[in-house]
Amino acid sequence: MSDHDFVSGGKPIGIERGEGPYLYATDGTEYLDAGASYACTPLGHSHPAVVDAVQTQVGELTFVDSSYPVQSREDAYAALVTSTPDGLDGAWFCNSGTEANEAALKFARSATGESTIVAATRSFHGRTMGSLAATWKDKYKKPFEPLAGDVAFVPYGDGDELADAVDDETAAVILEPIQGEGGINVPPAGYLETARELTDEAGAALVFDEVQTGMGRTGEMWACEGAGVTPDILTTAKGLGNGLPVGAVAVRDWIADGAASHNATFSGGPVVTAAVHATISTLVEEEWPAHAAEVGDYLVDELEAALGDEVREVRGEGLLVGIELKRGANRVARDLALEHEILALPAGRTVLRLLPPLVIGEEEADRLVDALGAIIEPDTDS
């Protein structure tokens, strides 16, 4: 059992179905899903558009490898590229976020001919050997060392330190536009622009890991759009298939032209790409990113008003919200689950992470605020 498995009567909560922003346990209890399984279901659970697309595709063709053109894959490619910032004209599908980041680092090295990767403290990019090497916390890395070399870490958000680290031997700078696992850390204004300028000057690739921040979560389809910065490589996964296992890399032409061969057997399978096309199309057509921005602003305002000095900070963008607590986040998440039927996630020891499906409204936001107020406000001694 992991650190944040929640138990009822001594047993983990078993989930049997979901609908919209709600999950239903095997005993019938309804839970508000404020974690979306680490942002994997932006449209909520069992969204009809995704269910219909997947069911139809399974009935027609479950799988054929990417050597053969398949309409669902072509539709998903087009939807993904159209949704990304201008200039990212090529894409490759894979099976997860860590695979997308592995590919991004490989593409950067082969396209630039350099080897050094610059990453940030408190970063998280995945658990395979390459992406793990660019992940900050020893908790994830130490059992598997030695990892791939030539990775340098700099403090997240510090443009001067980043400038000192980037030179003509840098293959890539990889950053989360807002750090997720590291504590919902929002960079200072101008930081992503500085990263863009430095990589341009050095001839290095700028990689934005949007595995958690993408798919409308921050109020834009992609978090980097809020800063007006387009990377050379953008990685995505989690919410890309609204719960199905899929990742992707979107790249500029100079990366695609210079990248060495890379592939995976299950890359762009028909069923998962049917889910991708349905998810992206629905997010864009129904304007869920804008809804996330509106409800996210409301949620943050209400949290700040209700919790006041009982927490250190409420931060984030859209429906990517972190609450810096004065106590352990696992304990608060457990109390939310067991006392208020709300499922949330920690992001480090003291940050509670709220990543609800983008389809929540003010009613669900109020429920979150009321529950957190009941748990946190009485603890005036902490």
TrEMBL record:
<dbReference type="InterPro" id="IPR050103">
    <property type="entry name" value="Class-III_PLP-dep_AT"/>
</dbReference>
<keyword id="KW-0028">Amino-acid biosynthesis</keyword>
<feature type="binding site">
    <location>
        <position position="127"/>
    </location>
    <ligand>
        <name>substrate</name>
    </ligand>
</feature>
<dbReference type="InterPro" id="IPR015421">
    <property type="entry name" value="PyrdxlP-dep_Trfase_major"/>
</dbReference>
<comment type="pathway">
    <text>Amino-acid biosynthesis; L-arginine biosynthesis.</text>
</comment>
<feature type="binding site">
    <location>
        <begin position="97"/>
        <end position="98"/>
    </location>
    <ligand>
        <name>pyridoxal 5'-phosphate</name>
    </ligand>
</feature>
<keyword id="KW-0663">Pyridoxal phosphate</keyword>
<keyword id="KW-0457">Lysine biosynthesis</keyword>
<dbReference type="GO" id="GO:0019878">
    <property type="term" value="P:lysine biosynthetic process via aminoadipic acid"/>
</dbReference>
<feature type="modified residue" description="N6-(pyridoxal phosphate)lysine">
    <location>
        <position position="238"/>
    </location>
</feature>
<keyword id="KW-0032">Aminotransferase</keyword>
<dbReference type="GO" id="GO:0008483">
    <property type="term" value="F:transaminase activity"/>
</dbReference>
<keyword id="KW-0055">Arginine biosynthesis</keyword>
<dbReference type="InterPro" id="IPR005814">
    <property type="entry name" value="Aminotrans_3"/>
</dbReference>
<dbReference type="GO" id="GO:0030170">
    <property type="term" value="F:pyridoxal phosphate binding"/>
</dbReference>
<feature type="binding site">
    <location>
        <begin position="209"/>
        <end position="212"/>
    </location>
    <ligand>
        <name>pyridoxal 5'-phosphate</name>
    </ligand>
</feature>
<comment type="similarity">
    <text>Belongs to the class-III pyridoxal-phosphate-dependent aminotransferase family. LysJ subfamily.</text>
</comment>
<keyword id="KW-0963">Cytoplasm</keyword>
<dbReference type="InterPro" id="IPR049704">
    <property type="entry name" value="Aminotrans_3_PPA_site"/>
</dbReference>
<dbReference type="Pfam" id="PF00202">
    <property type="entry name" value="Aminotran_3"/>
</dbReference>
<keyword id="KW-0808">Transferase</keyword>
<comment type="pathway">
    <text>Amino-acid biosynthesis; L-lysine biosynthesis via AAA pathway; L-lysine from L-alpha-aminoadipate (Thermus route): step 4/5.</text>
</comment>
<dbReference type="GO" id="GO:0005737">
    <property type="term" value="C:cytoplasm"/>
</dbReference>
<dbReference type="InterPro" id="IPR015424">
    <property type="entry name" value="PyrdxlP-dep_Trfase"/>
</dbReference>
<comment type="function">
    <text>Involved in both the arginine and lysine biosynthetic pathways.</text>
</comment>
<dbReference type="InterPro" id="IPR015422">
    <property type="entry name" value="PyrdxlP-dep_Trfase_small"/>
</dbReference>
<protein>
    <recommendedName>
        <fullName>Putative [LysW]-aminoadipate semialdehyde/glutamate semialdehyde transaminase</fullName>
        <ecNumber>2.6.1.118</ecNumber>
        <ecNumber>2.6.1.124</ecNumber>
    </recommendedName>
</protein>
<dbReference type="GO" id="GO:0042802">
    <property type="term" value="F:identical protein binding"/>
</dbReference>
<dbReference type="GO" id="GO:0042450">
    <property type="term" value="P:L-arginine biosynthetic process via ornithine"/>
</dbReference>
<feature type="binding site">
    <location>
        <position position="265"/>
    </location>
    <ligand>
        <name>pyridoxal 5'-phosphate</name>
    </ligand>
</feature>
<comment type="subunit">
    <text>Homodimer.</text>
</comment>
<feature type="binding site">
    <location>
        <position position="124"/>
    </location>
    <ligand>
        <name>pyridoxal 5'-phosphate</name>
    </ligand>
</feature>
<dbReference type="InterPro" id="IPR037537">
    <property type="entry name" value="LysJ"/>
</dbReference>
